[in-house]
Amino acid sequence: MEKTLQVLNTLENEGVLGKYAIAGAMGATFYIEPVLTFDLDVFIVLPQQGVLLTLAPLYEALRVRGYHEEDECVNIEGVPVQFLPAYNTLIEEAVAAAREINYTDTFTRVLRVEHLVAICLQTGRDKDRERIRLFREQASLDMEYLKEILKRHGLEDAWQRLNK
Amino acid sequence: MATPEQITPEIARLFFAKNERRKRLAALPYPEKVQAVVQLQRMAVPILKNRDKRARVWQINT
User: Fold this and answer.
1) Could you give the ipTM of this predicted complex?
2) CATH architecture of the domain with residue range A2-163
3) Does B15 lie at the interface with A, CB-CB under 8 angstroms?
4) pLDDT digits (tens, 9 = 90+) for A82-135
C-alpha cells in the first residue's frame, strides 16, 4: 500500500488533488481491529472544489501514469482506490482535520476517529452502526471533540437515538 | 447469544480471551493491520467467487 500512497502524495504535490485522507474501512482499521474490505476509500478535496465536482482531471492524470479505472475504483499499484470528493461540510472538515501519519516511510493522512464516527452516524447504514460500536469498544475517542462535531453538523439527535 | 445464566466460567473465559485478542489486533501497527486485511481478502475471495461476486486480493508487498 506504500506505493499507492506515494502516488497519492505525488498527485497532491502536483496539484491534481487539493488534499486527501484515508476513510472508510481502511480508515477504521487504523483505529480498530482489521476490517475486511476490497478497496481503499479516499476522501479528496479537489482544487476546483465549489465550481464543478468532477473527477475527470484526476482520472486522466492517473491514466497518463498507467493506472486504469476498474468499476468505481482506480487500481493504483495493486490497490483499488475509490476517490470520493468531499460532498458536504462534515467531510470537508474531516479532511482538513485529518491525522498526519507515516505509513512505514511514507507520509499519509487518516481521518480522525471522531470524524469517522460522525460520518458513520450521518450515513446510518447497519454496517455503519456496527462500526460505531467497534470504535466505541476499541478506539480512544475524545468525547468532547466528538460532541462538538455532532453539534456543528446537526447529528446530536442521531447520536442520542443510537444510545437509547 | 447465550443468556447470563447459560454462561459458564469456561464460556466467560473464552469471551474474555476473544475480547483481549480483538484489543491486541486493534493495537497492531497500521502496516501489520494492512497485511491482516490482505489475509482476510485471501480467505474471503474464494467464498465470494462461489457466490458469483467479484473481489480481488490486493497485490501489495507493504
Assistant:
1) 0.89
2) 2-Layer Sandwich (3.30)
3) no
4) 999 998 999 999 999 999 999 999 999 999 999 999 999 999 999 999 999 999
Whether residue B42 contacts residue B55, with contact meaning beta carbons closer than 8 Å, is answered with no
Residue ranges per structural domain of chain A: 2-163
Rounded Cα distance, A104 and B12, in Å? 38
Which residues are registered as beta bridge partners of A44? A20, A85
C-alpha span between A64 and A26 (Å, rounded):
26
pLDDT tens readout for residues A57-72: 999 999 999 999 988 9
Q: Which three cell numbers stand for residue A6?
A: 506515494
Contact (CB, 8 A) for A162 and A129: yes
Determine which of A43-57, A80-94, A131-145, B8-22 has the lowest per-residue pLDDT on average. Answer: A43-57
Residue by residue, DSSP assigns A78-147 as TEEEEEEE--SHHHHHHHHTPEEEEETTEEEEE--HHHHHHHHHHH--HHHHHHHHHHHHHS---HHHHH
Return the ∠ at Cα B57 (arms to B38 and B19), rounded to 5°.
Answer: 30
CB-CB neighbors (< 8 A) of B40 in chain A: 34, 36
Query: Are A30 and B44 inside 8 Å of each other by CB?
Result: no
Minimum CA–CA partner of B22 in chain A: A33
Residues 6+ apart with CB under 8 A from A161: none
Query: What's at A63, amino acid-wise?
Result: R
